[in-house]
Specification:
46% of the residues lie in helices and 23% in strands. Helix 2 (60-69) crosses helix 3, helix 4 crosses helix 5 and helix 5 crosses helix 6. The longest helix is centred in the middle third of the chain and has 27 residues, at 71-97. It has helices at 34-39, 60-69, 71-97, 100-111, 130-137, 141-153, 169-174; strands spanning 2-6, 8-14, 20-27, 31-32, 46-49, 54-57, 122-124, 157-160, 163-166. It has a 3-stranded antiparallel β-sheet, with no helix packed on it. It has 7 helices and 9 strands; from the N terminus they run ββββαββαααβααββα. The protein is α+β, with helices and mostly antiparallel strands. A hairpin with a 2-residue loop joins strand 8 and strand 9 (163-166).
Length: 180
Amino acid sequence: MFFLLDGRARATIFSSEGKVVAYRDIRTGDIFGEMSAIDGAPRSASVVAATELQVGVLSAAQFETMVDGSKSFRWALLRYFSHQARSMTQRIFEFSTMLVRDRLILELLRLAGATDAQEGKFVIDPAPTHFDLAARISTHREAVSREMSLLTKRGLISKYSGSLHLHDVCGLRNNQSFQY
C-alpha cells in the first residue's frame, strides 16, 4: 500500500489496443494499492506519475496491523472506500448517459474546482492536454479537440500561457444538453 506524500498521479488502465482510461487522480494525502494489500490480488490499474512523487510504502502485513489496531484508521478507510465507490458510480452514470460535450464541460468544471460555482471565471493550470481529457471522460482525442474548439469559438474558454481559462461557468453549463 502506498501513501502519496507529495505530488500528483493518476490511476490508469491501458487496453490492448492502446486506449487509455483514467480512473482517478491521486493527490497528496491519497492512498493507492490498498485493494491488493487487502485481497492479495494483482493490481487493478497502473499508477502513472503526473509530477515528481514522494511516496510512503506500507507492507500488506503492516497495513493489516494498522487496520486491526486502530478504530480511527478503519473508519477513515471505510470513508475513503465509500467516497471512491460514489465517485466511480457517478462516473459510470456520466459515461452511460451523457454526450461527450456534457462530460467534457463537467470535467473542466471539476478540474477548475468550480463544480458548485454558480458563476465566475476559473483557471486550470497547467492546462490538461486533449489526450488527457479524453482519457478522463472515456472518449477519443479528436472528439475533445472538436468540443474544445467549439467552446473556444463561443468565447467560453481560452488557452493562455499553458493554462486553460474558463470565462463563464454559467455559459458552460448552458452549453450542456444534460442537466442534473
